[in-house]
Amino acid sequence: MDASKRNANALHERVNALYKAAITHFSNIFNLTPEDDDDADSNNNGAPRDATDYAAVAHKELAIRVQATALIRTLQDLSTLIRDLQELWLFGGLDTLTDPADDAAMRAKALGIAALVEVLAKTKMGGGGGGTGVGVGEWKEGKRVEGADGR
C-alpha cells in the first residue's frame, strides 16, 4: 500500500467510496428488475407489454450483468482493503491506539525514569548510602540540576 494512503483520512475516504459504490451497484440491480406495476404500458392503453421483446430483455440482462460485475469488483476491492488493513496492523504500520501527544509524554516519562535509575545506581556506587551519593531531588526533567553541595 502506498505510504500516502496509510493515514486515517485516506482510509476513511476509501471505505466510504467502496461503501457508496456497493450500495449504488446493488440498488441499480434492483432498479433494473421489473415491478408488478410496470407490467402495464402507458402507451398501450394499459395493456401488458410484450415480454418477448428480445431487445428489451437483452438490454436489461446486459445492464444487470454490468451492475453485478461492478458490484463483484467493488466487493473484491473491499476484500483487498481488509487484507491491507490486516497487514498494516500486523506489521506495525497501523497504529490506532496512540496519539502523537501521548508519544511525547511517554518519552518524557522514560527520560525521567532513566534519570531516577541513574541516580539510584550512583547512590549505590557512591559509598554505601550515608548521604554521600547524588540526591534524587537534584534531577529535573531528565537533567541534573546543581545541588547545594556543588556536585
List the topology elements:
Layout (H helix, E strand, L loop, with lengths): L7 H25 L21 H37 L9 H26 L13 E2 L2 E2 L7
Description:
The structure is a single chain. It contains 3 helices and 2 strands; from the N terminus they run αααββ. By secondary structure, the chain is mostly helical. The protein has 2 domains: 3-90; 100-144. A two-stranded antiparallel sheet has the order 1-2. β1 and β2 form a beta hairpin. α1 (8-32) runs antiparallel to α2 (54-90). The longest helix is centred in the middle third of the chain and has 37 residues, at 54-90. It is rod-shaped and about 100 Å long. The two termini are 54 Å apart.
Distance between the termini: 54 Å
Instruction: Give the rounded overall mean pLDDT.
Output: 78
**Number of helices, where a helix is a run of at least 4 consecutive DSSP H or I residues:** 3
Q: Rg, please?
A: 35 Å
Structural class: mainly alpha
Number of domains: 2
Q: Give the uncertain stretches in residue-range form.
A: none
With strands numbered from the N-terminus, the spatial order across the biggest sheet is 1-2
Family: Belongs to the Mediator complex subunit 22 family.
InterPro entries: Med22
Protein name: Surfeit locus protein 5 subunit 22 of mediator complex-domain-containing protein
Organism: Massariosphaeria phaeospora
